[in-house]
Design brief:
Number of helices: 2
Number of domains: 3
Distance between the termini: 62 Å
Strand order of the largest sheet: 2-11-10-5-6-7
CATH superfamily of the largest domain: Immunoglobulins
Helix content: 10-25%
CATH architecture of the largest domain: Sandwich
CATH class of the largest domain: Mainly Beta
Largest sheet: 6 strands, mixed
Strand content: 35-45%
Radius of gyration: 31 Å
Low-confidence stretches: 127-138, 226-230, 265-269
Length: about 270
């Protein structure tokens, strides 16, 4: 008379997994002859699974999204286990599920949290802005990190070799029509940062972390020998005409050298 169903409050799953929404009768009684109904109150039709007389019923008003993907644990019904097993979890499966036992007129609710993680890419790009004098003291390059296909919305961080968070641009977040998130961010790396830089994307709710690392080496930065030579010629006290001509030649060499260097660089993923 006092028997009630008790479901686990919250279950987390990743898209594609087979999962169980735990639910049991307490005190434990044999549930093999009982009717059990699992529903999603927010859906129409709301029926996920109907179990009667020891078998699953394929009713016309069952939600088509769950056909062929649900069952009870038949070998555990005797001990009062009325858990729902769900195959090949979809992102659309997220939500609250109600387990109802008609003979007891009792129910219990379990929430399914569904997550999806994705691949991670880091792109390296060189930023060149006039005037070229900007390169005299420091040359910088920009790393861009992008990750697509997450759910729920993840967090993106840039870390140095010691695991400390680097100051970076704001994370851009886009939610697609499929409800999946794409996040991207950039970080500026200076030549003095000849070290490992890590891009990490994490989703704490589903305990998923993806990260990739790039080693920033000195040869990632372009050769500036022509630039320094040009500056020296510009600042020298030689004939103005010769000085200007030579300075221009060195500037052309700088641009040519930089162009050749850029072609050798590869996008890092």
């Amino acid at each position: 008379e006092n028997t009630k169903p008790y479901c686990f409050f919250q279950v987390m799953a990743i898209v594609g997994e087979h999962i169980i929404l735990p639910c049991h009768l307490e005190p434990a009684v044999d549930a093999r002859s009982m009717a059990v109904e699992w529903t999603r109150p927010d859906l129409k039709p709301r029926l996920v699974l109907v179990w009667r007389a020891g078998q699953k019923l394929n009713l016309d008003d069952k939600n088509p999204s769950y056909r062929g993907r649900t069952t009870l644990l038949t070998d555990k019904l005797k001990s009062g286990d009325i858990s729902l097993k769900l195959f090949k979890v979809k992102l659309s499966d997220r939500g609250k599920y109600k387990c109802y036992v008609p003979s007891l007129n009792r129910d219990s609710v379990c929430e399914l949290v569904v997550g999806k993680w994705a691949s991670l890419k880091v792109f390296m790009q060189q930023i060149v802005k006039p005037p070229l004098e900007m390169f005299l003291h420091m040359f910088t390059l920009v790393l861009q990190c992008e990750s697509k296909g997450w759910y729920p919305e993840p967090e993106l961080l840039w870390l140095d070799a010691e695991g400390k968070i680097l100051s970076a641009g704001p994370t851009e977040t886009v939610r697609g029509p499929d409800d999946l998130y794409t996040v991207s961010s950039t970080v500026t790396v200076e030549k003095r940062h000849s070290n490992n830089i890590t891009c990490r994307v994490q989703q704490r709710n589903i305990n998923q972390i993806r990260e990739t690392q790039i080693k920033v080496k000195g040869d990632f930065f372009p050769p500036l020998n022509h630039y320094y030579r040009a500056m020296n010629w510009k600042n020298s006290k030689i004939n103005s005409h010769i000085k200007t001509k030579t300075w221009r030649e060195n500037m052309q060499n700088l641009i040519r050298s930089f162009s050749q260097w850029t072609k050798k660089q590869k996008v890092t993923e």
